[in-house]
Amino acid sequence: MPAPRDGGGRLTGVGWLLLAVLFAVPAYVVVVTPFALEWQALCAVVMIGAALLMRHAKSRQMLIALMVVSLLASSRYLYWRLTQTLPIGPQFDGWDLFLASGLVFAELYAYVILLFGFVQTAWPLGRKPVPLPEDESSWPTVDVFIPTYNEPLKVVRPTVLAALALDWPRDKLRIHVLDDGRREEFRTFCETVGVVHVTRADNKHAKAGNINAALKKTHGELIAIFDCDHIPTRSFLQFTVGTMMADPTVSLVQTPHHFFSPDPFERNLNTFRKVPNEGELFYGLIQDGNDFWDASFFCGSCAVLRRTALEQIGGIATETVTEDAHTSLRMHARGWTSAYINIPQAAGLATESLSAHVGQRIRWARGMAQIFRVDNPFLMKGLKAGQRICYANAMMHFFYGLPRLIFLTSPLGYLLLGADIIAAQGWMVLAYAAPHVLLATITNSRVQGRFRHSFWSEAYETVLALFILWPTLLAFINPRLGKFNVTAKGGIVNRDYFDKDIARPYYFLFLLNALGFAVGLVRFFTDAEHADTVLLNVGWTFYNLLIIGCALAVASERRQVRHSVRVRVRLPALLRRRGAQQTFEVSTLDVSDRGIALDLPEALNVEPGEPVQVVLIPQRSDVWLDGSVRRAGHGMLAMEIGEMNIEQESALVNALYGRADAWLQWRDMRAVDRPLLALREVARFGLLGGFKFTRWLGGEIVRLVSPRRQGTATQGDG
């Protein structure tokens, strides 16, 4: 019998209920039916084979079917774990059950995150910008807020100059630098370029308080907010405001946070623009998926907010250190909607060092835990079901510290302590776990392949797990604990070094797993009765060693002494000797605010130190930049830019950062995920990190022992 449909051919509520019932019965049978080892192995092969075939299908419906098959495999595994593998009985002791319960907790957590993640990303909305009305007089007034506290002026200047070039009527746009540092040089700069320098008497509630104070001094209908290092393209408002004009219920239009400098993972592992970074999954896919459920949320920068919505909820939320997500949660609960336009329209600086990166993530994790405690999305009134799931998953994600630690140490309970954490034969564990793990990997690769490569999540989480464990736990217990910290930007790394302080948790975990691996190899050759179980745990431990080794590789900081980030970009330009009439058409190879690399024309012979001039994008600009040749030859000229006036600096900023298409091609240049290749890459970095750590540890041991040897030698000579 066909499911009931309405007049438009869509399923009615009763139709959906019937489909759910029809699916639930066979799903229940698949999940709970026990199999002997041979039949379970056959079931695993069939499910994995089906997933490998389904992952190549292009339709969204087939992708959702793949998600369903993955969830069935995971549900079957967890049902088996809970009903047949817990160490309960007189042959087990309390220690076994304690360790087993920890692993089951971690697996249940991972299952919930997997389920919620599938819901979030099942159908990304792919929203397009809404064109603005032709009548500019109907466009709203916009206040641009650029909050800053202790960042140097060199970081803030490009953002301000780019904001001044926004395509918007001058009488409807005001730029405000919200200077919580109350610095004289900022006031002078603002007066020079013609923007408003806003200060307040104190720094209460940090960034949230800074913005709220500025709200009381301004009157624009819309508020565009940029972190002080997030440089907008000139088309930012053109891409975002049309959506708010078309729908007066939209309180927020968020765009991606894009970074033109490498983060510590990308710099230390040399993966910049080769492997998607940590944030691309969120901004490239998850926020787009959230938008389908009307749950895309404010990320603190690169967004436009409606003043009336902010005023209705009392301004930016101040109760937590992630004021951005908390603010949009409250706006959604009051019935406001949001929008996400997945087109990079601003770009900023990533964190320079691993320690700064960890500090930033600790703040995010603590803030999300605070929101989960203060305004739990499961309990908050006014939210839709999809919004509850999306917000809850964003918050629960940051509780991965303890589960990740459990996954990294669980096999050691069996190898080093002899604990029966999973009371089952090793081959049976593999037969049930393989489809659970592999189908989740295959499905996530299909869903996330453009924005996150397989196995990198484990590496990211391992780097942060122990650092966010206590902050999230304490914030959940007492949301008032902790304070806002500003992420430093625009710094340098003077030398290559192994950050032993930030890496301390990793090398303890690495040494423990190395010990467990060695003991496991011995047991494999001496304990024939349990060889399959030992082998399973040895394999698990070896994988953990690779993941921890990858974390150690990230902790090996690479030298970064350039004060300015060079952006590889091809721009048309004109080049000439200073003051000469003859010009040469060239294109850039890379550009920064201190230098430019250009194609060297064959007809132009220049020497190092010779003064030259260049104009970028000559069809749109006639501002010449002065500089001198640093080196020339082999078809390339590198010039150092001299001192610039405001007009020249603005021309450079707008050519490099302000173009509407400045960042559109960056995502397209990366390869789509191939799980086996990704595993090989992570394994390579894991081995590299293990080697670097072993070499560093050997050096430390020699350093500690050497003085004693010298002392002994001296006494003998005496």
Automatic annotation (TrEMBL):
InterPro entries: Cell_synth_A (IPR003919), Glyco_trans_2-like (IPR001173), Glycosyltr_2/OpgH_subfam (IPR050321), Nucleotide-diphossugar_trans (IPR029044), PilZ_domain (IPR009875). The chain crosses the membrane at residues 12-31, 37-54, 61-79, 99-119, 405-428, 459-477, 506-526, 538-556. Residues 560-657 form the PilZ domain. SUPFAM superfamilies: Nucleotide-diphospho-sugar transferases (SSF53448), PilZ domain-like (SSF141371). It holds the Pfam family PilZ. GO terms for biological process: cellulose biosynthetic process; UDP-alpha-D-glucose metabolic process. This is Cellulose synthase catalytic subunit [UDP-forming]. The lineage of its organism: Bacteria, Pseudomonadati, Pseudomonadota, Gammaproteobacteria, Nevskiales.
